[in-house]
Amino acid sequence: xxxxxxxxxxxxxxxxxxxxxxxxxxxxxxxxxxxxxxxxxxxxxxxxxxxxxxxxxxxxxxxxxxxxxxxxxxxxxxxxxxxxxxxxxxxxxxxxxxxxxxxxxxxxxxxxxxxxxxxxxxxxxxxxxxxxxxxxxxxxxxxxxxxxxxxxxxxxxxxxxxxxxxxxxxxxxxxxxxxxxxxxxxxxxxxxxxxxxxxxxxxxxxxxxxxxxxxxxxxxxxxxxxxxxxxxxxxxxxxxxxxxxxxxxxxxxxxxxxxxxxxxxxxxxxxxxxxxx
Length: 277
Prior knowledge:
The protein has helices spanning 17-29, 58-67, 96-120, 134-137, 141-147, 165-173, 187-196, 213-223, 243-249, 261-271; strands at 8-13, 37-39, 50-54, 75-78, 89-90, 156-160, 181-184, 199-205, 230-235, 253-256. The protein is α/β, with parallel strands linked by helices. The protein folds into 2 domains: 8-137, Response regulator (Rossmann fold, 3-Layer(aba) Sandwich); 149-276, Rossmann fold. The strands form 2 sheets. A 5-stranded parallel beta sheet has the order 2-1-3-4-5. Strands 7-6-8-9-10 form a 5-stranded parallel beta sheet, sandwiched between helices. Helix 8 (213-223) packs parallel to helix 9 (243-249). The two termini are 20 Å apart. The relative contact order is 0.12.
């Protein structure tokens, strides 16, 4: 079991844009010191190591409750909540030294918890709900329907990439599950395949020559044979994930390349119920 990973991924919950950017800047400036931390973008499907939560935002506290933090994936509150909560807390104004001291303590506590789990053979639990609660954010009925669409029980995986190497890797990884994994290197072929065959998950390498990944995702969402096809982008530097275009096209999220095996498996299990059995 992997206990340490440097730097550690922190998911920010409930911070306004400027404060979130300020925290991001603090993490970047201190990256080479101590453990090191980075802000996990909202659409990044990788599981976080820790949560950093605006304790003065009610919606953030509701989200935190849904996520069910633990010693393995702990939470740190910033500010004063309206009600007592069983999580460590630091006060505003947010100072770099205070923030890192608190995060470092949680990382060390997390390492102890992971060591105990590893010794007992218990597997860590993937991150729970990350989407806003529908009853709180007054979601449009159409969006409610999309969010609540059932994940397909049947259906394969389609890899869109310039060569079949990643397809072979995923196929070998899922061999015992008898999960079909297809590969194409062409945008039109990918869209056609999804309209003709049941694809539960489509993973698109955005650096594949000759494709517009956002256009491809929109086409897949409109023509898919199953109730819900999950589209995940695989992002390599220096490609930048366009959040606005992605959400407009219906992209479900992304992973940064190279993708660690445990991150890939965790994400696939979220969207493919048959893998969790």
